Amino acid sequence: MRQNSNTKSLLSVLFLFIIQIFSAQEEEMTYANGIFHFEDNKAQKIFTDWTRVRQSPKVDAQIVDSLPTNQQVLIIKQDENILKLGERRSNWYKVSYQKDDKTSEGYIWGGNLCVGYRNKNGYDFLFGLTKTVNKKDKQYPSIINSQNIAAVKVLEGNTLIDEVSFDTGSGESLSYGTFNIESNHKLENVELTLKAMVSGEACGIASYDQYILFKDKKLIVLPQLMNVGDADIYYHSEVFIFPNDKGGIPNAFILKTEEMERDDKDREKKKRSSKTYLWDGSSYKLK
Fold first, then answer.
1. Domain enclosing residue 50, as ranges
2. 19-40: per-residue pLDDT in tens?
3. What angle do CA 186, 190, 196 make, to 5 degrees?
4. Which site in 80, 97, 152, 264 is 20 to 30 Å from 162, CA atoms measured?
């Protein structure tokens, strides 16, 4: 009986170990197929300058070429191999591209591609992730969090005009991303506004909105917006009110924050606050 008991215990441990392996693999695939998932037969652009093109989908494979920022490539197919660098996880992709009047093929890591790109008024605007850093938690300095750093670049032709960086949370916040061009929101001397967003899919995972003003070939990063919620138990919401929005004021933007939390008796408790930032045509400051 003792032998049977030991055998059952061993099988139980083995089963749990197998479950953990599959869960870890599923987590890798979930993150990899999030913000860095690119469809076959679709054009994409290189974000990381001089991205290495390899002969096979491995980090130690032979380097056959390197591609500059803003180089367009065509996704041929996604490879099953996943590489993790910091909190960035992505598949390798087989791509084709034009260089020196010649069509070439090779493999690149998806984390070196743009999450999004746009063109406006002769400028190319690119959004991508650059690295992962360790940062102390603002509320609990003894806790160290892994933080992804994103960037937006603006190029005129093949010349980099300006670049800015900002935080984008942990890997859990990289399930989905967008990058869009908006109007100048009636802010003086602003040519246009860029909005980069990353989001997680699960409750309690924060999403981040990053607005960037573009004027005189310069990118100006606004305070980052963070939104998070847990079903109908709790939420934290941040939005900007620009001059062209209802309730907006000339040459200023307002950061409105709202929080809701349910108490033990299922009653909603809400808190609201706001900050006004004055815009003088070239920079902003807190009123």
1. 33-113
2. 343 334 444 444 456 899 999 9
3. 95
4. 97
